[in-house]
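Methods — Computational structure assignment.
A single polypeptide chain was analysed. Its primary sequence is given first, followed by the predicted tertiary structure written as structure tokens.
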Amino acid sequence: MRVSVFLRNSSFDSGLISLQEFAILTHEPVRPDARDRAWKSVVAEAMAESDPEKLQKKLGVAEAAIFERLQVLSAKSQPQSAEIRELREASDALLALKTAVLKFPHWRQQ
């Protein structure tokens, strides 16, 4: 599945992004269960990025995709605990990558 990210303003360049500032649009029809797990491809893309400047942008998109999926799951009467666990693990991996490569948080004394 190919994913494109469209930003509505340039605040993303500063490293800040809100959920309102982007939309993830798929370009191919997919089954509902595959669409539900589209966050995985966004996370994998961020994890594979080696350019720190591109990584910062992809991390923001991946974190937002995880958050949005958690919002969808929390609205269900019986959320899938296995997927929630996967989302938590992905979030932890992104934080570790952000800390190691981008030296997040920037205000912490080294």
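Note: The chain has one domain: 3-102.
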